[in-house]
Amino acid sequence: MSHTAHIPSHRKPRRSASKLALRAGVAGGVLSTIAVAGAAGPASAEPVTETIEMPTLGSLGTDLSSAVAASAEASQQEALGQSLEAQEAAALQTAAKEAKKAKAEADRKAEAERAEKARQEAEAKAERERAEARAEAQARASRDSARTQLSTTSASSQSDSGSGSSNDSGSSAGSSSESTQVSSGTAASIVAFARAQVGDAYVTGGTGPNSWDCSGLVQAAYAAAGIDLPRISYQQSSMGTSVSLSNLQPGDVLYWGSRSGSYHVAIYVGGGKYVGAQNSSTGVVERSLDWDPPSGAVRLL
């Protein structure tokens, strides 16, 4: 016999096995119940039961469907936003290309207009230059003709003067005739030279051959007749003898201002007219005394 056979056991009594009950409701939304019963004391004690309520499968399915729908809607909204952004970017890019194209076309048209305007201006300038060249050629031909005629007239005057000096009449009569003829020939030379320059340009300080100022023209006209005059207008008007405007003769020097302080001079050419280098707008012109009445006149012949 075992030496422990009569020793009572000191182990605690076994507890009864726990019980677990799970009740699940399907598609009806019935709450599931899990019952767990455990004996807290001896086998003869009352079982302890605990109930835990769990969500139904139907509720889980609804929540999952809602979440999936919300996620799908969010994805759709994001995709729509990205699509709109892409469309806006494409529209901006297209607008930029169109604006660039329009600007290039406008620049091309503006350049074409500038080129056309420049071409027209160049043609107009060329036409003006051709017209000026023709006018200058005609004026030069006229001046050459006048100078040729002037030379012929001067030679004829000198010949007549020689013939008069050999006349058998008295010496005093011959001297008077020679003086008159020489004066007439000199005045004609001055007038012819002045008229030959009509149409030339006016340039301050100009002394020819194609541009003059007022005193430069008077000096050159008298030089063509062999008479030296000062260069300045008030010096020219201070020479010779003062004559009234009602007793003018061709070749007389007209002046504007006072005789010793004149600011403009011209040459009387007969017929109530004068030739003078007026200004840069008109150049050398032949005008009536009434157009710009002079202040006085002097006779140098």
List keywords for this structure.
endopeptidase fold (from Nostoc punctiforme), 3-stranded antiparallel sheet, 4 helices, 301 residues, rod-shaped, 6-stranded antiparallel sheet
CATH C-level label of the largest domain: Alpha Beta
Total domain modules: 3
- Count of helices? 4
Shape: rod-shaped
The Rg value, from CA coordinates, equals: 65 Å
Distance between the termini: 193 Å
Strands side by side in the biggest sheet: 6-11-7-8-9-10
SSE sequence, one letter per element: EEEHHEEHHEEEEEE
CATH-defined topology of the largest domain: endopeptidase fold (from Nostoc punctiforme)
Average pLDDT for all residues: 75
Main beta-sheet strand count, sense and barrel state: 6 strands, antiparallel
- Uncertain regions spanning at least 5 consecutive residues: 16-45, 160-183
Q: Based on DSSP secondary structure assignment, what is the total number of beta strands? A: 11
Structural notes for this entry:
The chain is an alpha+beta fold. The protein folds into three domains: 19-54, no CATH class; 80-176; 184-299, endopeptidase domain like (from Nostoc punctiforme) (endopeptidase fold (from Nostoc punctiforme)). It has four helices and eleven strands, in the order E-E-E-H-H-E-E-H-H-E-E-E-E-E-E. A six-stranded antiparallel β-sheet has the order 6-11-7-8-9-10. A three-stranded antiparallel β-sheet has the order 1-2-3, with no helix packed on it. Strands 4-5 form a two-stranded parallel sheet. The protein is rod-shaped and about 140 Å long. Mean pLDDT is 75; it is low at 16-45 and 160-183.
